[in-house]
Amino acid sequence: MKKILDIITAKMQAAFEEAGYDASFGRVTVSNRPDLCEYQCNGALAAAKQYKCAPIQIANAVVAKLNAEDYSMIEAVMPGFINLKLSGHFLQTYLEEMRTSDNFGVEKIGAGQICVVDYGGANVAKPLHIGHLRPAIIGEALKRLHKFMGYNTIGDVHLGDWGLQMGLIIAEVQERQPELPYFDPDFTGEYPQVAPFTVDELEEIYPTASGKKKDPEFSHKAHQATLELQQGRRGYRALWQHVMNVSVADLKKNYDNLDVHFEKWLGESDADPYIPDMVADMKARGVAVLSEGAWVVPVTEEGDKNEIPPMILIKSDGSAIYATTDLATIVQRMQDWKPDKILYVTDKRQNLHFEQVFRAARKSGIVNADTVLEHVGHGTMNGADGKPFKTRDGGVLRLETLISDMTDFVRAKVVENRIVADEDVEATTQKIAMGALKYGDLSNQPTKDYNFDMERFAAFEGNTGPYILYTIVRIKSILGKYGAWEHLPIAEPANEYAKELMLAITKFAPALESALKASAPNLICAYIYELAGTVNKFYHETRILGEENEELKAGYISLIALAKNILETSIDLLGFSAPEKM
Ligand code: ARG
Fold this sequence. Notes:
By secondary structure, the protein is of the alpha/beta class. It has helices at 4-18, 43-51, 55-63, 88-100, 133-148, 164-176, 199-211, 216-231, 234-257, 268-271, 275-284, 322-336, 351-363, 399-416, 425-442, 454-457, 465-482, 496-506, 508-518, 522-541, 550-574, and strands at 28-30, 39-41, 71-77, 81-86, 114-118, 152-156, 289-291, 294-297, 311-314, 341-347, 372-378, 381-382, 450-451.
């Protein structure tokens, strides 16, 4: 479906032309004086210069050519503005088409395109901590938005499952259980099926090992183990596989709890096999050059304001680094999936890293000229006091703990306010807590830091997730009382509040398009906050179920039902859903 602005712009352009002026002057915008009109066209002012006459003369001539059926108000005002209000009939027709169209008529602008979203970024053998919340939530929302807009989407968690952290674990396990067959170079039999550690043990093993990095002897062992693992030593690969199995199962469980789901559970290790050929090719073609013993890719470009240092491809000791892995991962993705777009959702402090990798990918022809590579760098979530989030003893807070704190807080409210029957407390609590947490995050611009404020996020009033959920639940309850509402057609607006609500509904597609373009789920939040506001206003000002005129009542019901469906679709894009009661 066309967006309203496009429809009325086309009509305005036709009117300019019919009145004898160039169509290009007919651009319509959303009014910046909502007290005067809904839409406006300032084209007569510009046209006046070209046609050397008074703008109001042009505005009047154009207005005479507009179709009066489309507008409840058409005004040419001094010095030459054209002010418009849409007619009830226009809105009714438009919303009815939205109601009956697939996707509410939102155009699938990504149809036929493939978008990879690289988000999550968990590291195996380490529990998810609060730093993993934002990439998970923002990435999931962006992926869902792309899918809604027609893209074929592939979410890839891109695990940190390679490199020194693995060597550290191997070395530590060897110190603790040297008798295990994984460490016997002569062992040729089958390795045990069962891992020699549980996930809890693993989560203790890694930090312990990491704390011993400064011990030269241990550090040497860990580096050696890393190298041998990467060279394919059988016992180490088997042990690594155990780490993966134990850890990934736990990570999946944690992401599932957040309603975050990845299509692909690939990691840095999966990029490893692509490195040798990629590096050889880059050397052969002169894209990579030697610099102080290391192979680097110079990536400065004309017009750079800040200097972008070369991307290190292979260090002087022969090893590959984080950037090498990310580049090789692009090779794999281009080969296997041929994406048109790859989005990376990570901490914004990795901005330079991605800039280097993207430039190197272009320079070496790993991606096509028109492949979009975008880093969505997010800010930090701080504590309510604005300081970095820490546990009481100064450690990093586990994500699980944060979620359970939020859940406990919400549960107490649900119980205290007797919101639902005992058996529904848990399900309702989960949904509200998830809405509070995700909306609290997503309503901020991704790049900005924000403060995690449980009380504010979980409040039922204000710009919060629970407020949006409450609005949906309220509509559901009215619909439930009304009865069959699913097929009721949209009516003309019966009062100004209905019209406000209808206008808000028409902004769904523009809001999603802006969110997509800017990779900014906060624009979806801002949209549904506005939409929820107009629904609540309408509800307060209008007797809906008490209306005696059945036709009017049916019109009210179909309108709030459409609003509910759009709100529910929107929160699904944000990654949460509404309870039945609240
Ligand atoms: N594992 C990395 C970290 O903890 C994040 C990975 C982000 N994704 C990527 N393609 N580099 O910092």
